[in-house]
Design goal:
Two copies of one chain form a homodimer.
Chain A lengths: L8 H8 L3 H8 L7 H14 L5 H6 L6 E6 L4 H5 L1 H15 L4 E5 L8 H10 L3 E4 L6 H8 L4 E4 L10 E5 L1 H14 L5 E5 L5 H13 L8 E3 L4 H14 L5 E4 L2 H13 L9 E3 L16 E3 L2 H16 L6 E4 L2 E3 L5
Parallel strand pairs in A: 1-2, 1-3, 3-4, 4-5, 5-11, 6-7, 6-8, 8-9
Antiparallel strand pairs in A: 10-12
Helix pairs in contact in A: 1-2, 1-3, 6-13, 9-10, 11-12
The first copy, chain A, binds a DNA duplex through α2 and α4.
Amino acid sequence: MSRSGRTTIYDVARVAGVSYGTVSRVLNGGRSVSAGARKAVERALVSTGYVPNQQARRLAGARPDTVAFLHCVNSDQFLADPNVNGLLLDCRHALGDHDIMMVAPVGTSGPADVVTRKLAAQIFDPVLLFSAPTASPAVADLVDRDVPLVACGIPLGHERQVSYVSTDDREGARQLVSYLRSRGRRRIATVAGPPDLPGGVQRLAGYRDAVAGFDPALVAHGDYSYASGMAATERLLRQAPDLDAIFVASDMMAAGALVVLERAGRRVPEDVAVGGYDDARIATTTRPQLTTVRIPWQRYADELTRQLLRRVDGAGPSGVILPVELTIRGSA
Amino acid sequence: MSRSGRTTIYDVARVAGVSYGTVSRVLNGGRSVSAGARKAVERALVSTGYVPNQQARRLAGARPDTVAFLHCVNSDQFLADPNVNGLLLDCRHALGDHDIMMVAPVGTSGPADVVTRKLAAQIFDPVLLFSAPTASPAVADLVDRDVPLVACGIPLGHERQVSYVSTDDREGARQLVSYLRSRGRRRIATVAGPPDLPGGVQRLAGYRDAVAGFDPALVAHGDYSYASGMAATERLLRQAPDLDAIFVASDMMAAGALVVLERAGRRVPEDVAVGGYDDARIATTTRPQLTTVRIPWQRYADELTRQLLRRVDGAGPSGVILPVELTIRGSA
DNA sequence: TTGTAGGCGTTATCAC
DNA sequence: GTGATAACGCCTACAA
């Protein structure tokens, strides 16, 4: 029994009648252990109710057993999206298979929080970053401290130091807007995402790639929420009443856009074509259903898990960009 | 620099020109350190960018720096309650003052989850328990492993081993029902909470204490949600159409009850008096406003923090029961 | 295959 | 006040 009252590998070794080295061996992998010894140890393990001391393990060089999850903006509605939520659950489940638990600070809005920022760096090993603003000081902080980071979306400004999984946002946006053009639309507006989030930047860049010239009046920003989609669309309608299409940077905002357009008496897609992004659950519950850019959620989860595990195992940063696919429905 | 590349107290000691024992002293408390040494160390601390290694600290006997939060039921609507949410935030904030972070497993429904149950016991030190079912095997598990637990509500079956903060649910219910009787109500029904949660049990017990005889037809159970409050009330109306009062075990459910009563054409409080519990935010937004039992949320948060801190510091289990207070409004 | 030093980064207890 | 030095519980060579 240790000071703390918990049984240690020494106790286990004693009751198993072997050295503590042997116990350690069966605990990790179990190479180079005779069948007899292993059996004796395993028996002793349960009879003593041994629970490994993670602190000691880590200190002795074992790999981390937790991954911290930080989402940097106050967007509960974002996590409420079944796709995103499923992404997280898949990831958590896969990590669980490796005996790794995903934890999150309670009641904070991510690394921007002072306490969290300070403590996260000391406590957690790999950190999964969600919605990290470009040039976020908090992220820079973590990077400085060499905390292994894995981001959802390209960590603009830290591409070399932070692992990431992203979809090809720019290409997806370009494809959708090109499609709108191919259908004869000429005054294509966009409800872009937050200018400080990588997705917001990239999807807007893709829009600019595909659109003929660039007219600032055709751009309005939202924060990915339904309400902001409505507000931005109203702004667009005022700024450019002659628009005949809108590329909206998320399906949630696009749903809001549809409502505003209907209220304004514009038919979709006849008067105004609307394109979304994400292929979120809501894309098929609107009327008309949304033409959108599909994100391969399952692959996204798989890659995220892979990147996380690589970091857990001590590998350096690396990134993947997943292809996206146009999904044509009724709205455009 | 350590193996992991991080600076250690050795590095700090070297640049400060003192022994690492001195560094450790200024790091903790700082007693018995000359002003000169302290100054040198503090300078070295920042110049080297030292970050303490928590694993090593814990291993050497320092106190925990995290508290895990587990809520055992899938009730997001429960956490969405501003009072409960505020409770958590207050608590988190107070802990932050002690450099302790509150974390929660991601995407699980508490200790019932296999991975969580297994890992929580090894990783976390004090665990804050929410809505732990009476006789929950998961809780028993943690208790067996000597994980310091602090529960919200009386941990029935583990009163001696688990710290807790609770309100006097039985007394509160008794007071409210007695009040109903004093106002001339004679067929007093109740929408009770879940029979496997301490609050559910105690508030029902208080109801039985105060009511004249016990008629099973006057009891229906809900799960604290708005919807369940509606459903339970409908059941009551069928089982006992002659009821003239309902004691509902939570304000959220009481709000649902009001709607059902109105639809059924019963006037509140004229035909049916309704009493709630919690004095939640919703209690003042219903029509009529709810007569209810007020929980002293601020004190609750303070006590919770205190209990948590005691556990962090290695103290044994202890519990507090907070007094409640009747709050008379329009519904009864 | 097995046992045994040595070390991980701190804290705490000693003499000095 | 200050500097050694022994834990803390475990892992990983290395020797046997």
